[in-house]
């Protein structure tokens, strides 16, 4: 939970929720004075004691002000990778930081070292005024920050407003192999044979600046697949680095690896459609979405997840999807690839799926070549979609609701709760994860812990409280959800 004390008549709070594997369960159970023991498994969404977590890793200064008054930090961006997660937050003194936790065998946490066991700590090595975005892939972490840049004396400055020129800086950490970190000076094809003899040379355990293309301006968006990275500049150009064996960088050929950010040649039609509005990357598949709502996909589509109506092993250049499944006068506003399946969202709140796996269309429909609408979500007012690691989520912002489906884990990452214990199976084992539905074939609404947070309307004197869903992030081992609360004070 976090509290903003900027206005005396208004209070803003943020809660961080987690379903699935709790990476700090053992630490939490022994380090938080007066707090309940944290379970290893969260089959239902449960509040994360972020302030307690930070205190447990030596960051008491971020959660206690100089007058020794507790201050609950406000969580911000979230990233879920292959066994590791990132949570950004702002300390009481206004400093943006990143807590990283989970697997760290390649230094992907960016905490300054690699370790064979899971760990946690603060990401080291980055500087800037504000964290804009964090992303995580397979053994990789990416951090995008805003920096005010250097002071420009008049008349070199373009305006009289303090003469400061904002810029963006991109950092990466983790496994240098395959070029996924965009660090050619540290790991390049010429050094591959030598580096194969020592795994240490593959790791970059500290956030390190990625060289950006000159003259392209600020970065607008970053997205990570399994082993590749895409970035979108504010002037509409797309660059990529990393694994390209399926054409997921869209460079016109399926070369093995690209070691630095390289421009993706955009088809002329993209410019006619208003240019690139946003990008998407998931597993070994990528997409660009134009301002007119057209989707171009590239990379792996062996399960038809690129939405071209047929299986294509390698799509080496952006190819427009067959949008005949869309009703007239509608356009796509988002596309997400979750591995062997993908989702698309149109501007009327309809969700479509294609590929294999978490299609949300029932247990009798597990594979589709052409996208099909998920009828069970019709009328639900969906505003956002998420897909990753074999499962999916849909979010309604008005009268907030969260729906999940797909492949669960033994720790319950779908957040749909545990199955009732069967007496025929004997007494429950307190050391075993709770039984959960392993396959959920249609979207199910996730129960939010409103009563536990005092937001269910049963607490007197809190009639002015309003809440809404914040960021939703699907990691391999767990689902992270932000819950933003505002309350008018007397």
From TrEMBL:
SUPFAM superfamilies cross-referenced by the UniProt entry: RCC1/BLIP-II (SSF50985)
Residue ranges of RCC repeats: 96-147, 236-292, 293-348
Pfam families the UniProt entry points to: RCC1_2
Keywords assigned by UniProt, alphabetized: Repeat
Region entry Disordered, spans: 182-204
Cross-referenced PROSITE patterns: RCC1_3
Presence of keyword Hydrolase: no
Gene Ontology CC terms: cytoplasm
Protein's UniProt keywords contain Transport: no
InterPro entries: RCC1/BLIP-II, Reg_chr_condens, Ub-ligase/GTPase-reg
Name of the molecule in the record: Putative Uvb-resistance protein uvr8
């Amino acid at each position: 939970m976090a509290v903003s004390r900027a206005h005396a008549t208004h209070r803003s709070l943020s809660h961080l929720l987690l379903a699935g594997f709790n990476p700090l369960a053992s630490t939490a159970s022994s380090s938080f004075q007066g707090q309940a023991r944290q379970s290893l498994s969260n089959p239902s969404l449960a509040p994360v004691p972020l302030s307690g977590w930070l205190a447990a890793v030596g960051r008491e200064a971020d959660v206690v002000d100089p007058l020794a008054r507790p201050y609950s930090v406000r969580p911000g961006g979230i990233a879920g990778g292959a066994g590791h997660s990132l949570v950004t937050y702002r300390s009481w003194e206004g400093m943006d930081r990143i807590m990283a936790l989970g697997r760290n065998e390649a230094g992907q946490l960016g905490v300054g070292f690699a370790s064979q066991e899971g760990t946690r700590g603060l990401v080291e090595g980055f500087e800037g005024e504000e964290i804009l975005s964090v992303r995580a892939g397979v053994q990789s972490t990416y951090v995008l920050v805003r920096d005010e840049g250097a002071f420009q004396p008049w008349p070199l400055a373009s305006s009289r407003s303090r003469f400061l020129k904002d810029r963006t800086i991109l950092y990466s950490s983790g496994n240098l192999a395959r070029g996924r970190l965009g660090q050619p000076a540290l790991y390049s094809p010429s050094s591959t044979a030598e580096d194969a003899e020592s795994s240490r040379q593959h790791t970059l355990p500290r956030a390190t600046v990625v060289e950006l293309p000159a003259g392209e301006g600020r970065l607008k968006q970053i997205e990570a697949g399994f082993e590749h990275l895409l970035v979108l500049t504010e002037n509409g150009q797309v660059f990529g680095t990393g694994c390209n064996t399926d054409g997921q960088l869209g460079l016109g050929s399926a070369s093995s690896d690209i070691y630095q950010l390289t421009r993706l040649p955009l088809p002329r039609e993209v410019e006619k459609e208003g240019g690139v509005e946003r990008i998407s990357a998931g597993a070994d598949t990528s997409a660009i979405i134009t301002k007119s709502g057209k989707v171009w996909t590239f990379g792996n589509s062996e399960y038809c997840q690129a939405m071209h109506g047929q299986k294509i092993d390698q799509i080496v250049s952006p190819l427009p999807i067959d949008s005949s499944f869309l009703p007239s006068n509608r356009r796509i506003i988002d596309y997400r690839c979750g591995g062997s399946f993908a989702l698309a969202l149109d501007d009327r709140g309809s969700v479509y799926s294609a590929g294999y796996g978490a299609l949300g269309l029932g247990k009798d429909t597990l594979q589709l070549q052409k996208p099909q609408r998920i009828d069970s979500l019709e009328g639900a007012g969906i505003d956002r979609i998420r897909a990753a690691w074999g499962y999916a989520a849909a979010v309604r912002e008005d009268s907030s609701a969260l729906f999940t489906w797909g492949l669960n884990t033994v720790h319950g990452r779908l957040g749909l709760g545990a199955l009732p214990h069967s007496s025929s199976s004997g007494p429950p084992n307190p050391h075993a994860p709770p039984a959960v539905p392993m396959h959920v074939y249609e979207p199910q609404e996730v129960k939010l812990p409103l009563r536990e947070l005092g937001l269910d309307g049963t607490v007197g004197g809190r009639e002015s409280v309003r809440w809404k869903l914040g960021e939703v992030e699907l990691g391999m081992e767990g689902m992270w959800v932000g819950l933003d609360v505002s309350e008018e004070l007397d």
